[in-house]
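Fold it.
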Amino acid sequence: MTVPRADAPLAPDDAARIVREAVDAGRLARAEAERLGRAAGDPRVRAALLEGARESARRGHGAAVSFSRNVFIPLTNLCRDRCAYCTFAKPPDSPEAHTYTLDEVAEVVRGGVRTGCIEALFCLGDKPEVAYRAHREWLAARGKRTTAEYLEEACRVAFEGGMLPHTNAGILTADEMGRLRRWNASLGLMLESTSARLRGKGMAHQYAPDKEPAVRLAMHEEAGALRIPFTSGILLGIGETPEERVDTLLAIRALDDRYGHIQECIVQPFHPKPATRMRWASPLSLEEVAAWVALARLVLGPGANVQAPPNLSPDALELLLAAGANDWGGVSPVTVDFINPEAPWPTLAELRRRTEAAGARLVERLPVYPRHLSDPAFFEPAVREAALRRAGPEGYALPMPGLEAA
């Protein structure tokens, strides 16, 4: 039997066969995933990918597509990293730089509770105290040495205020994650890419030490050892190759195989922003994004939660569902997406209408999925008790009458 060369063109019939076998096996092997990834620009190959991925999602999740009603709290937009595509991070002397006080956190939480939000999403820059003396002094005036210590207090305020925190704070130590576990339903860190090449000169992460893949993988491992429900994800279009994308997805799968803690994989497309070093870079087309959502589904398997943020591809929601996505992520009726402020959330009414028109059923979830909520080992008792009070028998959020049209 002749084995095809790794770089040989992939015939559409071969692509369809590989996809069918992956759907039946529940996962896609590296060599086949790389061949499909390299050929994803072919509309015929892409059609096979989407057909198989949608069937895989149907086997794993039926018609259910979830979202989380949240508030977004950018605790600080100071950051020691300088990613080539980021507009979130600000230096301390910028008029846009801001670190939330605990009173401001409490105010956002009250607004979230009033509008039926369950999740308090904390996002913030990586270790700004390492880079900025002014921030170290700000923390010291509040009796804190690190941003992570201050974050712990903010999460406590959110939890005691009636919400379930989910935190994405960049790189944290095992001890810091253990302390945050006391107040958080889940934590997260976008793996983004396993490519160390992107840390090279002129690349997206040259000036971002916290984007070192080995460091990010180690944090994923430590979160698994701590039994923390964990969100990961891949960032598409920042200079990586198809093979590197496949490697990233396989790394996420291997982590969940070992620890069982990966609750979702976000497939996030890069969009160039003004005033960044990557402002002239070309983003992936909607069709390419859909192809990689489909590949994520086939690599990770039918039971995985594959998230496609609806505000980043607002004209392609139906295409993303056809590609095997089963989660829209956090959608806020209160706050903007502070990482992508140029991309407004759809209203929940529009999201429901378009999801149902595509033949799916929109369900509201907590910041932790039913799979993990059913296992007490993944939570502090008080956090799990608070989550269960908000959950129905299937582990999704209890319906909140009067808020459906928000």
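The chain has 15 helices and nine strands.
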